[in-house]
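W.,

You were right to be curious about this one. When I first looked at the sequence I had no strong expectations either way, so I just let the prediction run and decided to look at it fresh. Below is the sequence, 91 residues in total, followed by the output.
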Amino acid sequence: MNVSASVAKIVGVLSCYLRQNPLASDTLVGIAQWWLKSDEVSLVDLAHALKQMEQAGVIEASNAADGQVRYRRTGLNAKVDEALDRFIADS
């Protein structure tokens, strides 16, 4: 995937958020509103950022009982922390 600068920035911000809030879980819109605290984030770029992080194995998507997809960290371990730290350094 060709990652644009805005997607790379979002990945970095999300990685910081997940390092500070390792039990966080939310929908695409919830992440834009609460994790990124921005109405100006492109939901398309955010979706690309989440996909990149999912492919790297640091987040997972799950279907909730209400039918919405929620995103969260894949685990609370050093391997995920190291991957998030690399994303932060690269942003």
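Here's what jumped out at me. The chain is about 55% helix and 15% strand. And, maybe more interesting for your project: The helical segments are 5-20, 28-35, 43-55, 78-90.

Coffee later to discuss?

I.
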